[in-house]
Amino acid sequence: MRRLVRGLAWVVVPLELTLVVCLLAGASLPTGVLMGVEAVALTLLAVEGVALAVVHRRGGRAAVRDVVPEPVRRIVGHELRVLGSLALWVTRRRHGVREGDLAFGHARDQAAMLYGFVFVCVVETVGFALLLRNWPTLHAVMLVVDVYTVVLMLGVHAASVTRPHVLSADALRVRHGAHRDLRIPLDRIAAVRGERRFTHEAADGVLNIPVAAQTSLTLELAEPVTAVAFLGRRRQVTTVRLHSDEPEKLRAALKQALDLTQARTAPSPPRGRPA
Prior knowledge:
Number of helices: 6
Radius of gyration: 24 Å
Strand content: 15-25%
Shape: elongated
Order of helices and strands: HHHEHHEEEEEEEH
Low-confidence stretches: none
Structural class: alpha+beta
Mean pLDDT: 81
């Protein structure tokens, strides 16, 4: 079954890419060919979906992880989280914020840029619709791509709004939209300082999570934590730079939480001898 799923993936993806490239190049394909290719692709996708369902039923999520490469799982998961964030945004809900937690947003400084991208994408959609009106098949393909791009850009902003940084009683959850989620236990944070940076050079043990090309807080860790990149690459970090819409409030709340954590974990003083 696993070989079947992998084999279908190697057939479906090149088939669809070949079709898209031919259409974008202006090739005139007979309607029968288009319908036949799409029918084969949809059939293969349906068979692959059934095969994945069988694999999941027999071996659970672990079996699916063995079949589907991690980068593919992470890309699909990111797309689903982005689209799901639109529903959270419309209903004014936030992800991962429980009762008693403190939430700190990080979407404000990038909102103008993302809305600008959305406007450009809408203008591009209208322009391509006019330019390709005499090529209905290519027009339909580009319309789907452009509309999905607009939805995706709105979803990226929605993910940043609905997935804030979260400070709980025992950890700080640092996030950046739907593609970065790092949990740092409070007992591993040695120091926190306000530090606004607009340039971020790659360095060993340093994780930069800029928003609109800037970070405003730096966390120094007493012990390393594992940071997972977008496609699954893992590395140990001891310094985390992040951005918040209200860095001073986050810094103050984090320092207060660290003081409480240190007070709880401090050893009790020895009792004196009774008189």
